[in-house]
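Progress report, Aim 2. The chain analyzed during this reporting quarter is listed below.
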Amino acid sequence: MLAGMTTPPHQASNSFVIQDVRIFDGTRVTGTGSVLVVDGRIAEIGRVTAPPGTPEYDGRGKTVLPGLIDGHTHSPWGKPDADRRDALRLGVTTELDMQGDPELIAGAKRQRESLERTDQADLWSAGIGITVPGGAPPEYPNLPNPPKLDAGADPGRFVADRIGEGSDYLKIFFEDGSVFGQPMPTLTPGQLHAIVAAAHRHGRMAIAHVTELEHARTAVEAGIDGLAHMLLTTADETFVEAIRKSGAFVTTTLSSFDRGLGADELLADPRVLPYLSAEQFDALKYRDSPGDSGWLRVGSRNVARLHAAGVPIFAGSDAGVGAGSQGAHGATLLAELTHLVRAGLTPAQALTAATAAPARRYRLTDRGRVAPGLRADLLLVEGNPAEDITAVREIAVIWKNGYPIDRRVGT
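Predicted structure tokens for the chain:
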């Protein structure tokens, strides 16, 4: 029987069994039992009988849980494979890209439908986000300048072009820079309404980048499906009730606005540090500006208000924004989970925000839970992360499509 280790040496296939393990199914700990995986899918849970010769893992004292889903990342032009390898090595088996290279989408769709061995997290993508000339996001050197929605252009046509590129959902930048003291143009409310309506006609969700309350009100009124960031201005009760009634979700990305607090904690954690690539390390060390902006406090209070009201909360890191972003693929989501617990979610609720909840809303029907028939994107961790959220950092084994992942950096 194999104990937890960085590279399990005896599992050549994507079939195995974990014996006597605590099971977090995506929403709760269901108890202790065994999990049998056959050909990359979960076959049985509970009292199982494994075929002779099936590799066995000792789950005593450990927890098995779904692979993590990062609800807000970016796959920039130039190095997407490395980013997704970094993500997988830290337990993120699926990334939801909120602005990235549309050339990646076709290959990403083939990968996520396969049960073949891979060393990368799966990807769903918005492709090119919708913004106006001069608007958010900023343009970065050495990266292509994607198309913008010019004044007078047809929003419906623009949305159709993104669908034609393969976008799984639409990302809309509705940001005037006021929160950051950097005024910039943005979409008009009429354009926003037209974009959301066009996305829905195509059967796609529309997700808005907003950071300020009044823009968030307009987005909810337009029928937005979700917000890509937690607000950085105080959410009042009228807004909380409006978004609750709308059914829209909010992806938190508190780590984007914490002035490096979460990154510093990761860099000091021996459970994380040995598995960081040079790119991840550099991203975590980067600081765009010193000092305390107060954004983390405001955002955390908003998380608490919205969560208490029943608004769906998803975990996201915003990893991959430009050169030097402190969001490191894979690693920063671990910090985000800690922020969610500090904001008032229980550890189990924070785990759900990074597994079953986004899987359900994004219709990722084959992942996000530990259940028969689903693909074996799984983590085996020491201890019980449903009680201590940082236990998710102490990973014994990661499986992608049922194959164990070699966590050594640079392999």
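Residues 15 and 89 are 20 Å apart (CA to CA). The two ends are 25 Å apart (CA to CA). These observations will guide the mutagenesis work planned for the next reporting period.
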